[in-house]
Amino acid sequence: MAEDVNGAVRDAPRRLVVGISGASGVIYGVRALDALRELGIESHLVVSRAALLTLSQETELTADDLTGRADVTHRLNDVGAAIASGSFRTMGMLIAPCSVRTAGEIATGVTSTLLTRAADVTLKERRPLVLMIRETPLHLGHLRTLTALAETGAVIAPPLPAFYAKPATLAEMVDQSVGRALDVFGLDWTAVKRWEGLRGGPAA
User: Fold this and answer.
1) Taking residues 19-44, what's their average pLDDT?
2) Edge-to-edge strand order for the sheet containing 93-98?
3) Are the C-beta atoms of 176 and 191 separated by less than 8 Å?
4) pLDDT, tens digit, for every residue of 3-14?
5) Where are the alpha helices (DSSP H) in 9-109?
6) Is the dihedral of CA 24, 30, 32, 35 positive or negative?
7) Nearest Cα to 71, choosing from 32, 99, 115?
8) What is the mean pLDDT of the chain?
9) What is the predicted pLDDT for the residue at 202?
């Protein structure tokens, strides 16, 4: 089996764990689930209680609408779930959005829910863990937490707009950020607008 530079197996089963924490931006997790379904990737969802509150405040979706987008939904306190074990092979895990509290638990390894346990498992198995951090401004403690996560192997991917893609709607901006996060797992979502170089610039 082929391995990447981190020793992770590239031909892992086509399944991805998606965590949704309570930070603002629950739509990123929603669209990630939509993208995985379009791409034919099996999704395993775990949602924090705060995320369900955010869902009701930021969207018209219900909890059933959210879980209906996933192939498998795991209960937050189900420490015996498949995704709690490293022997359950996946392509990795995306947390979208990722709150600072969630990031802090993962950074310390003191995990209190299945969401953060699954993230810890992803790191120990040397699989990609992508964190779409949603917080600003960041104080020094936040930055140190993110540095610790990056040193452990996590990819810190705040959902920042790509203006070169000339988004016309908020939905396009969301999809661009989600698609770029999925790039880390080698997934090419058609919603992403790729940079193709400068057009109409000065001659060399």
Assistant:
1) 98
2) 72-74, 42-47, 15-20, 93-98, 129-133, 155-156
3) yes
4) 454 444 456 689
5) 26-39, 49-58, 63-67, 100-108
6) negative
7) 32
8) 93
9) 62
